[in-house]
Amino acid sequence: MRKTVRYPVEGANALWQLYQTVSFWKVVKNFVVIQISRYTPFLKMKNWLYRTFLGMKIGDQTAVAMMVMMDVMYPELISIGRNTIIGYNTTILAHEYLTKEYRLGRVSIGDNVMIGANCTLLPGITIGDDAVVAAGSLVNRDVPAGAFVGGNPIRLIRSGEPSDQVRSQVGSSEDAEEEIQDDSNTILH
């Protein structure tokens, strides 16, 4: 179950009442900062923008790819651990506006997490350390540490494994380098 706080509204749908729930000027500032961040290729600058102007917690050596869309209204509810990768065109939401209510929830992403391209993370979720989220996934619930999840909505593909076991399954870097060179020769020639 996602951890969100519900705020009921009366009358028109919650999104129609948007600026009664969050400042117009906050949204404008956040939008400008997020759009600059989406297009900048400079990771340190991007993380500085997120920390300084959006109040997000971003760990050292975290890489947020181009076109990632952070929550425009409540980015301060998002925290990302160190040495984590957020893949291209991923959306991270900390709010959801519905017809009769809106909901807010923290999004907490751990250390050494890999989130593939084109994922959507819903409000109120936690992704544990060393987890992997497959590209194109909808993260609608918590992801345990070390787990590999994927799909829409996500399902568990593999539970956490000790990191030594995972490394031994991957093989040596020399083997991988030889395979890459073989592929390059096939493709380029």
TrEMBL record:
SUPFAM superfamilies documented for this protein: Trimeric LpxA-like enzymes (SSF51161)
Keyword Transferase attributed: yes
Keywords: Acyltransferase, Transferase
GO molecular function, one term: acyltransferase activity
Region entry Disordered, spans: 161-189
Cross-referenced Gene3D superfamilies: Hexapeptide repeat proteins
Annotated InterPro entries: Hexapep, Trans_hexapeptide_repeat, Trimer_LpxA-like_sf
Name this polypeptide is given: Acyltransferase
Species assigned in the record: Tumebacillus lipolyticus
